[in-house]
Amino acid sequence: MKTIKLALMLLIALAMTACVEDKVYEGPNTIEAVSINPDAPTSFDDVVVTAKVSGLLSVTKAVLEYTIDGNNNTVEMAGDGKTYTATIPAQPDGTKVSYVVIITNEAGYTSTVEKDYTVGDKPSDYTKLVINEVYGAGADNEKYLELYNNGDDPIKLQGVVIRKDEADDVWVGEAGEVIMGHGYFCIVGAKNTLGEGGSGPNPRPMTKGLSAKKSVLFQVYDPNSTLITKFERGEKLDGWGNQSLTENKQTWSAVLTVPGGI
Asked: Are 262 and 133 in contact (CB under 8 A)?
């Protein structure tokens, strides 16, 4: 009888134990992976930071903190509980960007991952830079010279020199002037007359005039003073610009004419 009572009490104890609800785990979620896109950012790229998160508790907050030259920035990350993203704006070439992903769950626990990257541009391939069109008719503010990037990657124009008639540097590229891959840069206006329109940035015109009735030579040099491309109309004879030609009111196509230009 005692044995039966003991077994009964043991069964009751086991049943009561089974009815006790397991305690919910409380602790930080796991940040399984953090990645950036593109994985090798250039100064032309906004960078998307993606964090993969796992855990039993719901995420209540996800933020991205990033530091550039000692300046701190905070951005809320958008996500679905498992994947969170935020964007760091494009930064100048050579900039080091340090960033931290911070995940907070419903129990107040936080998880962090720290990383960094350095912005690095590809060297400009100046062999892809060509003169596409030249227009010398009309008023000075209607004349233009159009450059074209025949490659896939951006070309920085800082230090690029356009020389006219072997004598005058009529335009020199400045910082921030860029032709994107298969893009155009149109310098509208001659003789310091700023033109209107064009298919690309035009902060400054050429510093010398351009005549549709004269021989002309344009040469483009890279920042190392290497000749990249040239355009010539007529012949030099006793000097470029001295030879009279029949006036041409159309554009002059140079090394190549690319559909979609100005």
From this structure: yes
